[in-house]
Amino acid sequence: MQLPQEGSLLRIFIGEADRYEGKPLYEWIVLKAREHELAGATVLRGMMGYGANTRQIHTFRFDTLSADMPIIVEIVDVQDKLEKFLEIIEPSIKAGLVTLEKAQVKVYRFEPAGR
Description:
The protein is α+β, with helices and mostly antiparallel strands. It contains 2 helices and 8 strands; from the N terminus they run βββαββββαβ. It has helices spanning about 25-35, 80-90, and strands at about 5-15, 20, 25, 40-45, 50, 60, 70-75, 95-105. The protein has a single domain, classed as Alpha-Beta Plaits, CATH 3.30.70.120.
């Protein structure tokens, strides 16, 4: 798969406790991204944060471990594919933030299997 230099980055901010059909929402989003043949997706777990639904700080500390840490799902591809994908997943995001921004793709390559 080739990816043009002018790509886009879809960034989805949700909570670790968010679910869709019984599985973690972030996992469902990544599986859907692969199903729609998007160039790549990564899930990042935040160390600290808060959002629109609550002003409570969620933090990763051993003495006060939060059960709902911030999660960021980043997906890279071309803008039109990401916008179509967002139409599919947006109803499943009950609380969170989604951004779409331009991204300059500098390197996108893979190593053939068996090397």
